[in-house]
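Posting here for the record, re: adenosine-5'-triphosphate.
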Amino acid sequence: MVTENAVKEETIAKLPADKVYAALGSNVGGLSRSQAEERQKKLGKNLIEEKKKKSIILIFLGNFVHLMAILLWIGGAVAFLAGMPQLGIAVWLVNVINGVFSFWQEHRAGKATDALRNMLPSYARVIRDGEEQKILAEDLIIGDIILLEEGDKISADARLVESSDLQVDQSTLTGESNPVRKIKDAVLKDDLTKAETPNLIFAGTSVSEGNGKAVVMEIGMRTEFGKIAGLTQNMKEVQSPLQKELNRLTKQISVIAISFGVFFFVAALLLVKEPMASSFIFALGMIVAFIPEGLLPTVTLSLAMAVQRMSKRNALVKKLSSVEALGSTTVICTDKTGTLTQNEMTVNHLWLAGREYEVTGVGYSPNGKIMTGGKTVSASEDNDMNLLLTGAALCSNARLLPPGEESARYTVLGDPTEACLGVAAEKAGINVAKQSELTPRLRELPFESRRKRMTTVHRLQKPIEGTRLIAYVKGAPKEIMKLSNTIRINGTVTHMEEEMRSRIMDANDNYARQGLRVLAVAYRLLKKEDNIPASMSAYTPEIIEQNMTFVGLVVMADPPRPEVAAAVEECRHAGIRIIMITGDYGLTAESIAKRIGIVKGANPRVVSGLELEEMSDEQLKKYLKDEIIFARVAPEQKLRVVSNLQELGEIVAVTGDGVNDSPALKKADIGVAMGIAGTDVAKEAADMILTDDNFASIVHAIEEGRAVYSNIRKFLLYILNSNMPEAVPSALFLFSRGAIPLPLTVMQILTIDLGTDMMPALGLGTEKPEKGIMDQPPRDPKETLLNKKLIIKAFLWYGMLGSLASAFSYFFVNIQNGWPDIPLASGNNPVYFRATTMALAAIVFSQIGAVFNCRTEKQSAFKVGLFKNKQVNLGIIIEIILIFALVYLPPLQSVFHTAPLLLSDWLLLCIWPPLVLLFEEVRKLWLRNKKQAGSKNL
Ligand code: ATP
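Prediction output follows.
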């Protein structure tokens, strides 16, 4: 019967491991599928219910009560009081449109990030129907048997039934960051809290070391984690530096806007002698014109869109803010195996005390031979080879899956380094499955990057030298040599002389120089007289891994990923440095680094973990400025490299997959975890997850990150550039002391700002990365979004073009009507209205040219395809429809003081978009030529 109450849970801790299955309605073969389904129907899914989110109405209303909105509410009210209800309504309408628009953008961005969250499902390994399976963590049910290994996230509360050096990080529950030891034995003590009970493990915690097996006893909201879930759900999306900068920017621009407003107010009062009320309204129009409405939500949306695009290119970004850091990354610290290389290992050589064998065949298919001197050899003919390959295969956890429904090839479950050992053994004629049955594994000292080796203890069928216990160890040759004092040569065990040690290292280095990966295998017969403890749980690496007999080397190829060399080259162009930090051997690392172009020098500096340990920070910093490779480093040491790089002012992206990589992943500006080979713990610590473990995907993500930043600039440039043509007419009016009648009314300014300008601007936020974006050095993170260059370009260049177009069009109508002799601005003069309509329409039309210009920074707009951005095209169409409506619909005419235009007016207007485009194209061409000439001169 399934336990449903806490009393029963406590008794479960007191049961011996073998009684736990039945108590939780399970058995050693796990639940059957139908049992699991039936239980799920009754108990539901293993989910932590989300706390109620903030009400959508409150979020909506939030867009109407921030500082700028309040200013606009007040401005509108003043307009009403001053007897201009139309303007009051317009200003309020601006506020409403802006609020609704912001809400809509935010909502879309939220949806995009939610969708992303669902792309990161978590899985659990279970035994069901007697077989190991991978299921969604939400489908776990009471009675399921879960398998745990280092780095796994635990997804339900469970009672251990097997454990091997298991340590669990329970900090999410207890706040205690030191890992806690967990055992499978019954716990009879009564005065322990649940978290202190050593045979219970809990949802939300993770395995920091060792492995184990446990039976689920609680799921979902009834787990300890579920009970306190409310507390952990208060995580707020913190504002990214970019969003903060934009906030500051909006405030800065608002201050500028208000200063302009005050200036125009005073000028209108004193210079033109306008009455107080109309001067105020005039100033209010200026203020509204300058405020960049919709900036923040648009930026959030374009970040979210970039995140979606990245996910299609195998990079899942967990936080929007990471996108910016990606864009300014200056150094990528990457591991080698699996990220730069394919992690598809194939054993191609064996080395046994001077005898060398070639292994043929590709991939994981066991079709191949072991050859020497052109002859095929099988394990049965060579005792040492038999021992080498049997030891290597038994000391592995990976499983080989034969071709089937899922794949037409042999595939691997587990670590490829281990899988290829089994394949080589099969090629030598060893039946690995049978061997594992005949020599069952009793104990495992799991692989750790720090130890660079793994050991297993097995029971032999027949005793050898009076014992049936044998330990096999495999790992980095230097490490294994340190543990060995004897070596097997042609079936006899002899003392390992210094000369032999250097022969082994020479062989190792020879292979490594070819970029091959080398593992050594040794064994030890565990005899009572050698003080081997009786209890297997007392076996520690210190006790077991000594006095070993060296057997030989297994050499494997792990070719670089084909796309990596190009990605490395791209980084070089983009001014991004790549530093390889690997656990593998220095010469192997160097050879691969050279092959894919990470290092160009003939003798790059290769720093080993040991050297790194002894190096001072000053020395390290000095070395970090040049080409460098870190080899044989422990994951913990990555943190130091990252910190030192950051102290040098670099923006660092770092890759990692293991539990011990977490500190470096967290410290880095961008922590990148591997989606396939990575542990849950690494994924949790990272900012970005690569679904294909591929280095090239990091480079794609950086490209997108850069594109977002430049898109935001494009958007900003566009919305700022209409400010000038909006302000210049008023300035003309003021400084001519009214001799030039006001070319643009306040209502018309508002139309441009919110009506016509918004839609094309939005399109700019969705531009694809521009060609050449990866040919520039990384962005200086200190550089502000609104820099001098952008201000000059927006106000003085684009702004000037728009102002000229507007002024020209305005005078075009006026002069036709005999200006300056006619009193234009008096009353409802249709001639005056036609002229102001022209000024308005000219700004809108020159903005059409400008939006094409803003799409690229240096490239020709024609080169990227003038009409390629559908959102921009749609924005332009809406813009044109709006201006027609304003000009021809009588109700709008009366509100916005517009009048129908003549055919000749329209013809003139049609000149502006191509002309504005042309001017900018010429400037861009000049810029490109200048750059080319500059690079030729270098
Ligand atoms: P990278 O750090 O680039 O991923 P790596 O896989 O070589 O490279 P680690 O996983 O830290 O780095 O492994 C360190 C070393 O330990 C390896 O170079 C190898 O010699 C040894 N090793 C790797 N996997 C195993 C294993 N499953 N069993 C025993 N030894 C191993």
